[in-house]
Design brief:
Signal recognition particle alu RNA binding heterodimer, srp9/1, Rossmann fold, Helicase, Ruva Protein, domain 3, 6-stranded mixed beta sheet, 22 helices, about 10% strand
Length: about 650
């Protein structure tokens, strides 16, 4: 802020002009100088005003009779006569440095010359310059009009918002020196990074592969969930190879005007060929490359024309030119097959969510600039955050740093990371939300029911925290479990155990209060979804057998929580599915009620501690869990593959 304000106005004007003269699509942050037509008009008026001042003669206007009187009195030294004006220079006096000049309008006076000769006054005449007046009258206005017309046409046609530049690609070009991202900034996705390191070799030393007859791949498609680092990887490839980076979103190709998208594709590839070797990166490719004919109401002609032009350009350019196309998407299943064939996007690089080792590596990268306390263990933080992608982990570290700064700490401690994780997963803590004692007691027993069922079952992740402090929009409390390892498969018994934990809160209310509340709404939704998937997708129903009853068209990388749309079974089968779901939930409900009835004393003890302290975690919770498991003679198996927060 102090940089520009301390400069004089001329320096600031020159700085703005310099920023305007730079390349607009180089990705710079300099402030552009926006020229206005009013600047030009003011400049023209100022020039005319200055010229009128400079050209104005220092003369006094007198009447013709006064002029004749000056001649007769002998005060005139010389006279200049033009077609309509007479200018006389008077004789200077001793007290005058310069001679005074007067002028008068010329009249038809035949005695003027005789009077001048009688007084021996030097006189001469001058002819008017007619062509100069014509020039000022016609040529100058035409020149001004031509300049204005050219200026307006340039303004209309220039820039990404120009009317005549709709066919220009709105691409962001980053020069080699502007890309400071390298593979050292990418962690947790080693397999994908290894695949792209070969692309860097293609760009740096293409002859190494061409001498054996190999061809540089034309396109690389990065597929993965949002936040896994697809764009970061593409920028790292450009940074390692030291080549220009063309970045554009798939949605920026398509406009309301027909043919604009195809023109932008042509312009993008034309610019890339001029800067070869380089990388073209198209983010969110599914916005542009959606399969043709996918829409039952008819295709979007403009989008399909744009896609066709992209296919033609990818086929048309020479791979030896050194232009590699990289694209990112989280919905590869809806892309047009013509895009995915060899010769266009030759390589498909899957970027999955990182495992615990990958999360540790990502945390180490993002924690470079953060002052960590001596008690911070990144491995524990990685274990706390299963399912987190790179963007989530970066946000976690930033939130922890903000919490520590808010408390005026000198470094970020483990408690700050724990609070940041709770805030991201459960929402903002709301200690000021007023709950009456009855509601608080219900919440305490509800969360104690979740925790006690989880402690009573074998092969479950240990309960790490129980809280009845409200968080987020609707969560009045939560029970948190930390998995001991990453899991990718779940058995039928493990899914049934998860159902039991979800129903533990509602059953606890039934046993203690003889009534139920609305707090189990989210638990019931999740339990119903698990039961439906076990029967319809995983073939885990003994009655219906090992069959699947849905065609899952959902993205494997983008979980929208949407149910499959297509139905490929009869009404009789639908009724059997409903009956199986009800039977499974009821059987699970009976088993949970039996567990909590036998452990009622432990349930009341745990709820009492919660009502007193509001939060139980750490060593106290581990000791309580040992007591529960020590008193059990038989247990079921369950082990979730991801962090669970059973919120009321």
């Amino acid at each position: 802020m102090a940089g520009n304000e301390q400069k004089d106005p001329l320096s600031r004007f020159l700085d703005r002009l310099k920023g305007h003269s730079g390349k607009g699509n180089q990705g710079t942050d300099q402030q552009k100088f926006h020229f206005s037509i009013w600047y030009f008009i003011l400049a023209v008026l100022a020039i005319f005003w200055v010229q009128s001042i400079l050209n104005q003669q220092q003369t006094d206007r007198v009447s013709y009779s006064q002029f004749k009187q000056l001649i007769k009195s002998g005060k005139v030294a010389s006279v200049l006569i033009s077609s309509d004006l007479i200018t006389a220079t008077l004789k200077s006096r001793d007290d005058q440095k310069t001679a005074k000049t007067v002028s008068t309008v010329r009249v038809d006076d035949p005695d003027l010359v005789r009077d001048l000769e009688a007084q021996k006054i030097e006189f001469s005449g001058t002819a008017d310059d007619k062509w100069l007046g014509t020039l000022l009258t016609w040529v100058v206005p035409l020149a001004i009009f031509f300049f204005l017309w050219s200026f307006l046409m340039r303004r209309i046609g220039s820039g990404p918002q120009g009317v005549l530049s709709v066919g220009k690609a709105k691409v962001k070009i980053y020069a080699e020196k502007e890309i400071r991202v390298t593979f050292n900034d990418v962690a947790g996705i080693d397999e994908a990074k290894a695949e792209l390191e070969e692309v860097v070799e293609f760009l740096k030393a293409p002859a190494k592969f061409e001498r054996l007859g190999g061809k540089i791949p034309k396109g690389v498609l990065l597929v993965g969930a949002p936040g896994t680092g697809k764009t970061l990887l593409a920028r790292a490839v450009a940074g390692e190879a030291g080549v220009p980076f063309f970045s554009m979103s798939g949605s920026e190709f398509v406009e309301m005007f027909v043919g604009v998208g195809a023109a932008r594709v042509r312009d993008l590839f034309a610019q890339a060929k001029e800067h070869a070797p380089c990388i073209i990166f198209v983010d969110e490719l599914d916005a542009l490359g959606k399969a043709r004919g996918l829409n039952p109401m008819g295709g979007h002609d403009e989008r399909e024309q744009t896609l066709n032009q992209l296919l033609v350009e990818m086929d048309g350019f020479d791979p030896r030119a050194g232009v590699i196309i990289m694209a990112a998407t989280n919905r590869p299943e809806i892309l047009d097959p013509a895009l995915l064939r060899p010769g266009r996007f030759d390589r498909h690089v899957a970027i999955d969510k990182p495992d615990i080792k990958g999360r540790v590596a990502i945390l180490e990268v993002h924690a470079r600039e953060v002052k960590l306390g001596s008690d911070v263990d990144l491995k524990i933080i990685a274990a706390m955050t299963p399912g987190f992608v790179g963007a989530d982990l970066a946000n976690l570290i930033n939130e922890a740093a903000l919490i520590a700064a808010r408390r005026n700490k000198e470094e970020v401690t483990m408690a700050d990371f724990q609070e940041a994780a709770d805030r991201i997963i459960g929402g903002l803590e709301k200690r000021n939300r007023a709950m009456n004692p009855k509601e608080k007691e219900i919440v305490a027993y509800h969360e104690s029911g979740h925790a006690l069922v989880a402690m009573s079952l074998s092969n479950t992740d240990p309960v790490s925290k129980i809280s009845i402090i409200p968080r987020g929009i609707a969560a009045l409390g939560y029970t948190q479990q930390l998995p001991t390892e990453d899991r990718y498969l779940m058995t039928r018994e493990e899914l049934l155990a998860r159902l039991k934990v979800l129903l533990g809160g509602r059953v606890s209310e039934e046993i203690i209060f003889g009534d139920i509340s609305t707090g189990a709404q989210n638990d019931l939704q999740r339990a119903t979804d698990i039961a439906r998937r076990m029967i319809m997708e995983y073939g885990m129903s003994k009655k219906l057998g090992p069959l699947t009853y849905v065609r899952d068209t959902r993205s494997a990388h983008l979980d929208l929580g949407l149910a499959p749309r297509e139905r490929e079974y009869s009404e009789k089968t639908a009724q059997q599915i409903d009956e199986e779901m009800v039977a499974m939930i009821e059987e699970t409900h009976r088993e949970v009620r039996m567990i909590l009835s036998e452990q009622r004393s432990m349930l009341e003890k745990l709820a009492g501690i919660l009502l007193e302290k509001e939060t139980i975690e750490g060593g106290e919770l581990k000791e309580f869990q040992k007591q529960v498991r020590a008193g059990l003679s038989q247990a079921a198996s369950w082990g979730p593959s991801s962090r669970e927060g059973n919120a009321i």
